[in-house]
Amino acid sequence: MTAPPSPAPPSPALPSAFLGPPIAHRGLHDRRGGRIENSRAAVAAAVAAGYGVEIDVQASADGEAMVFHDSGLSRLTDESGPLCERRADDLGRIGLKGADETIPTLSEILAVVGGRVALLIEVKDQGGRLDDTGVGPLEARVAALLTGYHGPVALMSFNPASVAACATTAAGVPRGLVACSASGFEGVGLTRARRAALAALADYAAVGASFVSYSHRALPTPETARLRAGGAPVLCWTVRSAAQEAAARRHADNVTFEGYPAAIRG
Questions:
Q1: Is the pLDDT of residue 265 over 90?
Q2: Residue 110: which of 202, 194, 44 has the closest Cα?
Q3: Reported pTM
Q4: What are the residue ranges spanned by the domains of the chain?
Q5: Would you call the peptide bond into 12 cis, given omega within 30 degrees of 0 as the criterion?
Q6: Distance of CA 34 to CAs 20, 31, 44, 239, Å?
């Protein structure tokens, strides 16, 4: 019988910068303005406006951390197929639809942000199962790129195994869980019990998380309320209007937003 993994050490606390200005979801993107999600232009616009920035990272075939949300290329580029089957140099030549730029690397985005605002990095699940399948190489590459980076930065993932891996690869970086209602996990082929456990943040203590980012539509939950009452920051995703933001802030310490000019409070 295999022994269960040891609990990860506690994460560093989330810096106060993440609880200030709203966080621009995949940067301050605006397709009509030529700023595509997770692009250099979208991130630069968010930084210029004084917002925090949330981005996604996926692994290329040769292990580079690429800033891109989807596992497939077709929605945001004129190419098709899995991103993970292309090398970084190839991906760096693929244009983003509606923009005069290509898929960026995490290294490039770190240079754009330059530590000036809070940077929230979501490590995307690489195995498609929200377990330890495919976990390790991307987390290690992200950690290597963050070595020497100066500025408020945090890591998070829907995959608890990824968050736990970051305790080893990036021990000095705050880490958190991303979650939603149990029904939101249906698309990844999980059992009903596992979906419920993910929604209930059952792995929070075991992975040593110090914050959560929860779907605003599901807030509050008993677990988010309990964590928040105990001092753990609760972020939420993704609000798309001032009215949604106002409702979310009753149960969350900050919002991730898109599609409207979120106010920066004094």
A1: no
A2: 44
A3: 0.97
A4: 16-257
A5: no
A6: 27, 5, 13, 21
